[in-house]
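example protein:
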Amino acid sequence: MKCVTIDPSFAAWRTEARTLLMEGAQPAHVQWRETDASATVFGSICPPAPGSVDPNAKKPVRVAREFLAMLETAACYRAPDRWPFLYKALWRWTQGDRAIASADDADGLRLRRMIESVEAEEREMRNKLRFRHRDSSLGPPEFISWFEPVHDLLEHAAMHFATRMGNATWMIATPHGAAFWDGALLRVDRTSEPEEKPMDFGDTAMSGEAVSGDAIEALWLAYYESTFAPAQANAAEMASHMPVRYWKSPANARTDPALISRADPYSRRDRHPRNVPPEMDVTINTDLEPIKGTLLTEPPSLDACRRCALWRNATQPVPGVGPADARVMLVGEQPGDQEDREGQPFVGPAGKLLDEVLAEAALVRESLYLTNAVKHFKWEAHGEERAHLAPAQREREACRYWLEEELRRIAPKVVVALGATALKALTGHRTALSEYLGKTIEHKGHIIVPTYHPSYLMRLTDDKVREEVFGTIVEALVFARQIADGTATIRTPVANRTR
């Protein structure tokens, strides 16, 4: 019997499984054990028992990418026998038994049910996870959140939040581990024995908005501050703490942590439109020249636009609306589900919040020109719901054609960028929204006032932080109105308001 001890991660299991397959180790002759260490420590192999390995075994056949993806998702399913089961499935596949991928097979049915359970919980995590903002004086991470998954999907789902939240630092704590993001680098650590009893950290140990009352979350936060954050100051120390698979290197391949922390993670994202059905993938070419050719075309109308793939799954494009001589233009990210169905911008939940902000800023919606940086709704199915997906850089660039046309036609005196995506689309640069709150940007003859998107308010659970963000958006709109009226050339603070 061959005894294999691994860190409970798909990467560690795959490494050992590849070796076992090359040795011809049959599933019945392998015993799998999980180490109690974190994800940064890999297990060792026990001495093999006589007769458990075939010395004349051939190298394993190549495994289809789709089947490996199935195994990776199923590896998140928390079950005592998941590793031996996955190795059994892999063994059957490499022996030519393709029934393992079918629901008509007993093992295949179990594999599919594991995948469905993990995917359902990951969708729930994406929909329900909410971050709380910490007091900036406490240092990073800026945002923290708590989630109690049934399965080990933290590592599998963490990159979704990394790509959605940009340069903001955050931590997601769970009873069995935590994920940390410093704006460019992802780390996932685990514990097999979570702390379950409340602990007394004293009056000053964990002050500020980060306090949640959960001892485990506080422990992970303390771990972040004492271990992860200091390592960012030293590349050698960072490398010793993290496996290579968690690094996201900048384009020039340098691994200076200071450079990595300033790099925009959106520039290194997957370029494939995630909401395009598999049967249409053959028409999507991500080579550089075909993309350039697509972007150079000038469609006769927005309805006929095919400059990116988002039109395939959208109900219709959503153009901007407002007076042809509007002095103030508001630019959001993209249409939502309701906007996609009605063909009008800002008519969904974010639009209702925008109406509240406009009323507070003494602005009339009908006097403004409202539009989005991207004109089609990008989404993925979560059951019967269509969940929003952030547009990729290629899609923003494709739709800049229409945004620039609107800027030429309307010629507003001031443009309000609602959110980071709108700001990037307007400037053409990877500009951090947080650096320009309360300021103006002059770009190609336009005065841009950056602020948060109203939808950001829906993700905030802390009433105090929500009120501050609401006030920041109001201030930006008041500032824009004053610039348009010619009554202000510098930022004029707005008194604190209660709602």
